[in-house]
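Have a close read of the entry that follows and walk me through the local backbone shapes. See right below:
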Amino acid sequence: MIWALVDDQQNQLVEVVGWLRDAANWRGDRGAGTRLVEHVQISAVAVLASILVAVPPAVWLGHKRRFGLVAINISNVGRALPSFAILVLGTQLLGLLEKPIIGSVSVFVALVALAVPPIVTNTYVGMAEVPDDVRDAARGMGLSESQMVRQVELPLALPLIMAGIRTSAVQVVATATIAAQLGFGGLGRFIIDGYATRSSGGYTDVLAGALLVAALALLTEGLLGMAQRALTPKGLRPAPRWRRGTTADDAPTDDEVSSDPTPLPVAA
């Protein structure tokens, strides 16, 4: 029985690989290419809207170091409510209302509610934890409050802000499959439609759709991780591994590296 189960899983894996390699599954309005673009659009619009909603007030509150607990608790309401519950409530109140760019309003609200809490929390904490001596030095240099926010506090808080955006983006990409519950597009269509036709081989569509969503979430994590590092001021970036535990005086110079007589190991 165990071997039969293993063989069945291997056959499903082979079928999924074959599905992904079949060019016919990537063409047309219902192909994986179109569904992937729809999924990216749904996710990107929700994340961008969340940034516009969450970052400005969190930056101001973090700069003032006031009402942070209240703002974080209010934003966490979206995290406490299941996205599917928000989707159902939105459908009951708004029906299948659809708007240009954002698509389904109910799906949009559910994804924004999911994405806002990590951005609010990280932005507020990043701004509020800027050291007092740095703030005092900025004021001593004659910077105004707005200049201090733009030129001093935001650059120092940016790594933590980007970490919150990255967390939200990955969650949104993974959750955007709920759009298919209302008949809209995205990679969730393969999961919903495949499950409906599972008796006739639809499980291959389900597994292929789930694999594409996972791959897109990992790609989002990687790209935003690189963006986070690129936007982080050089002085705040982690040191390379060979420099960890050493001082600047201990680091080898270019001349020392080029003149090192130690031969490189040769593979046997």
In short: Strands lie at 98-99, 103-104. The chain has eleven helices and two strands. The first helix runs from residue 2 to 21. Residues 39-183+211-235 form a domain with the MetI-like fold fold (CATH 1.10.3720.10).
